[in-house]
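Review form for a predicted model. The reviewer records the input and the model, then writes brief findings.
Reviewer: anonymous (R2)
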Amino acid sequence: MAGSGKPYRSTPRGGKRQPPKGGRRFQEPPSPKDFQRPLPKEMYDFDKVPFRPGDAELPDLLNMGLWLDKMVPWRKPGSDFKDESWTLQAEYRLYALEQMFCRRWHSTVGKQALERQRQSAKDCPHGMAELVAEVEGRLLIDAGRASAIETSLSFHHTWGVPKIAGSAIKGLVRMVMEDEGERPATIERLLGRDSDDLGVGGAQGELLFFDALPANGDYRLSLDVLTPHYQEYYQEQAPKPPADWMSPKPFTFLTVVDTSFVFHVVAASGKAADDLEKVKQALREGLEFYGIGGKKSAGYGRLVLVEDH
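Model under review:
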């Protein structure tokens, strides 16, 4: 079931397929028969395991995070299942990301999880704050985590939808409050204190930060590209000085776009309830002006307020 591994190029919209320089012709995009997945032979059946997430019988119930981690199709050099030399070649990786995942998705279980989270926050006797903010540009969360596709997004491990971890939201609020000159004692009371290297001296804050989930379970994944011009300069072993004759090496990765996230902050004490408005304002400013996640200096991670409750 191994494919030819020859380069290909998708036909541009409204255009015709053009041969590349040098006379070589691009091959058709890989078909399902060109791919294999690192699964036991007994489980390997394309009739039972959909090739694309959208081909599943109930795609709105899929765990997209699990699919990206475990079900990205790889190309295996031979048809022998005893051969363990799995490789994810560049042309197959690009096809898997662009053709299979870059679209708008709806998750029924993600929507239900958000509704339960909202109800849990409302049931807190000391009050809660809710913000709905939309991604302005692109969002890149947890990109450095080990993944089969070399870059990753942060997906909820159970519901499979993109998420912004509560710890990241809490860290953003802390940064904004510190930059704006908030009293250290107030910050420590609300957000807690880290323990030392021996695990001593930590303290829990009076605010609880939930993971931010997509509104209504709707989200969209899109492909972006990073092009290091001096790859040999950034190598850890025997780096070379940057020079004009080094070749740029485009590298693609997934981002979240056109998606609204719902943020919940809950007061765990009556005293903290009086500070909810202050914390909500800090979160709003942090999302709009500081950003959250990776590549913030390049404009990623900005979210604009949609609703405020």
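Findings: The longest helix spans residues 108-122.
Further findings: The two ends are 54 Å apart (CA to CA).
Recommendation: see findings above.
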